[in-house]
Amino acid sequence: MTRFAGAVIGMAAVALVVAYLAFGWPVLLLGGPLLVGIAITLLALALTERPREVLRERRAAHLGESPWKQAAERGEPSAGGLMSGFFEVSPQAAGLPEQRPALAHDARRAAARRP
Fold first, then answer.
1. Residue 64 and residue 59: Cα distance in Å, rounded?
2. Where, by residue number, does the polypeptide cross the bilayer (predicted)?
3. By percentage, how much of the chain surpasses pLDDT 90?
């Protein structure tokens, strides 16, 4: 995580320097606050990563492995979940209804003229 944050801040700083060299000092009015915003966002992410990891470990110890992971390891579809049934095909009638070809343009005119 630290390496990733350093790489992101480094790339943002290099982009700011290149923009400064290309366009001059007005770039700093927008680029400076953006660089600070990136640093604050990454700091917040780094500070919340450890509590999320502890929560993930506690849930894994309390609940064991998830039923979805167990089903995937056995090679069978899971019985439920967030999107269960969403992609299932609903039961259809045994046969398709009779489909007749559409009338040709001239046949439509003739059918419309008929009394």
1. 7
2. 29-48
3. 24
